[in-house]
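Sequence, please.
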């Protein structure tokens, strides 16, 4: 396990850190409300949904009928700090994140909007780097940036650059991918190793060194999804495990579908450098964010061919079977440990790594 050092080479005093675990009955917004876990779910369920009215099943993107077309629509905001991190930046993160939200409905992403909220005093050179990265990521993903907006806030009332993107895509006939379709017996797959993005951002933000550089996995996944669908498999569920990591995605699926999910810890691919960093910092890699990975739930009859196609794609070469859906313990995720015991993998309450997307 590597020693943790700061930017100046001196050891970091981890004992001086505090965990941003919020109070469940807090009368104000806390960081945990943005963590993708239990507090985020409570905020949506008890504040936003009663105010907005019925919105249908909650998922990464909404699928609506527009004439004869089925259109996927999604929006997301990006407040990552720092703006640039190993393997990416807020610019390509904004494109890839929204493209992936559309892809998780089986859509082919087509168009994006982008809006910038800029803090007075931000260096134009930094803004230019963000814009260049965003444009390059859109071109690489094959999507068009067709509209946008810019606002500026007073110095001290922002954090350099915030970005919002919204996206539109088309869903093909017969495609029905949503959390509620998970069924007992289904196989749970992941497209690659987990935890790189969260550790990369944390190491850059805090000036930590783990002996081995960890880069973000940020990438567009719609090509991988298209290849999976081209097999003819009846893909039931797709999720990208961003905020809250694998644990949050699996819990959302289990709760929505009213099923249990069992995973095998040793089958979940976690790179050694991420495992070491998490061990040093007291983090569970199951809760660390990813920006270029997906979770797939497929019928057992389709699992082998979907897995083979995933492994043949550049963004799925590390794909693995990690567990199954079960009728037991509905709305709960459990992991079988290397010692043969089981542990509950609950929805995160606080936020392990604030501001990672």
């Amino acid at each position: 396990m590597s020693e943790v050092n700061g930017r100046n080479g001196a050891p970091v005093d981890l004992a001086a850190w505090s965990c941003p675990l919020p109070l469940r009955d807090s009368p104000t917004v806390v960081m945990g409300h943005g963590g993708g876990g239990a507090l985020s779910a409570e905020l949506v369920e008890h504040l936003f949904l009663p105010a907005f009215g019925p919105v249908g099943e909650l998922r990464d993107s909404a699928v609506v009928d527009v004439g004869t077309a089925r259109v996927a629509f999604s929006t997301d905001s990006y407040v990552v700090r720092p703006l640039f991190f190993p393997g990416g930046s807020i610019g390509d993160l904004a494109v890839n994140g929204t493209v992936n939200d559309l892809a998780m409905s089986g859509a082919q992403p087509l168009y994006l909007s982008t809006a910038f909220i800029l803090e007075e005093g931000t260096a134009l050179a930094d803004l230019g780097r963000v814009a260049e990265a965003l444009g390059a990521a859109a071109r690489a993903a094959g999507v068009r940036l067709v509209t946008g907006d810019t606002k500026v806030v007073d110095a001290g009332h922002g954090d350099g650059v915030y970005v919002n993107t919204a996206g539109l895509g088309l869903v093909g006939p017969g495609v029905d991918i949503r959390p509620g379709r998970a069924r007992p017996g289904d196989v749970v797959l992941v497209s690659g190793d987990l935890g790189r993005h969260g550790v990369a951002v944390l190491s850059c933000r805090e000036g930590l060194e783990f002996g081995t550089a960890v880069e973000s996995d940020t990438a567009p996944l719609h090509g991988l999804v298209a290849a999976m669908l081209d097999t003819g498999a009846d893909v039931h569920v797709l999720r990208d495990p961003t905020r809250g990591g694998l644990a949050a995605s699996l819990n959302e699926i289990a709760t929505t579908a009213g099923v249990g999910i069992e995973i095998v810890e040793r089958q979940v691919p976690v790179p050694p450098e991420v495992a070491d960093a998490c061990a040093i910092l007291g983090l569970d890699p199951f809760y660390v964010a990813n920006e270029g990975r997906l979770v797939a739930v497929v019928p057992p009859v389709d699992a082998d061919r979907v897995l083979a196609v995933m492994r043949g794609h550049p963004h799925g070469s590390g794909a693995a079977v990690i567990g199954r859906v079960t009728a037991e313990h509905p709305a709960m995720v459990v992991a079988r440990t290397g010692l043969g015991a089981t542990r509950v993998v609950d929805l995160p309450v606080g936020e392990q790594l604030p501001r990672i997307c």
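The chain has two domains: 61-175, 179-344.
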